[in-house]
Amino acid sequence: MGAPLISNLGFTEVNSAGSLNTKAGAKINLPIQLYKLTGNVSGQLTLDSTTNHKKVILDTNGFDIDNGSDAPLDMDTPGDTTVELKGNGAIRATGKTTTITQSDASHTGTTTAGSGDTTQVLVDTNHTYTETQINDIRPDPGNSYGSGGGVSWNDNFSTTVAYPPNGGSNRGGVRANQTYHNTSTATKFGGPGLDNVIRSDFSMTFTHAFVEDGNRTDGPITGVGGSFPPTTNTTHTYSGATYRFCRWFSAFQRVNNGNAGSTGVAIYVNANNGNAIVELEDGRPSFCQIRDVKCFSTETGRKFTFTNNTDHTVTMGGTNNPVSGSSVAAGGSLTGTRNSEDGSYNITATLPNTDGGGNPLAIHDLNKGTALLDSSQHTGITSVKGF
Length: 387
Known about the structure:
3 domains
């Protein structure tokens, strides 16, 4: 079709996305601009404001403008000049999914979707969980004679410690179980304060190098609130820290079916080197064994809150989505927790296909520019932003 014979009219045929200024060429400075589609357009049509423009017309002419990644139009005009839409072709932003993501595992705080969508994801530390620090389970071997399957103290091993009840003064000849005589166990016990040993769910059981001489399993000793809490539970400050001392009198029977008496066990951290001490207070070390040890800690995890600030129910998704729920209504929230300090996520929220009036919904505007659109002469479908 040729250009209408109207003075001061710049007529441009359009069949692809891009700049209408460029497509119009020298005609761009004429006061009346008529752009007529001659084919479907995939992407965005842009128009930069030109001072001379008094009237701008976009005739879809039965063809469609669709953009899945942004607004289909980005048009600016001077002053009160509107963009008149005509024809019966559709003008649609077709993107329906918003992605909110944080790749930094150390992230906390609020992230907003943007582009006018105030939907947000909050990551905070309002979540704690129980983490297993030690779970040493040594099954009873079932034999009638010999070892009960635990780890023995050693007749030939003792150490010098900064002894808490003596204000940290050195005390030699301490019979510490070598399996747990290390800084790693001290950390798992909760450090100098034995934060995890005094928990009610801490437990330690005992057996013998010769099960025929005593109970196959004794105990457990436990933390505060458990079935066998510490007989002595005191704190002592020295070496720049507070050290807890826990002792269980008569923790388990000694050999000869208990005729040799019972033994106490003490747990503390040696300030001299940071090692954990599980001390055998009586009895022959090589005859006495630790069987099972269970130790737990309370850790701070991450809580995730997704708040849907669109005007519609959205469908949830994402490659790293910690919140629970497949959908959430407008104004609603979904939460989830993670048993770690990882605050990263990738969450998607997808709008329904249409609104209540049957109009296609999208996450982008129809026009991202400043020009006002006059659709009074346009009979085609236009998308509606979902927020």
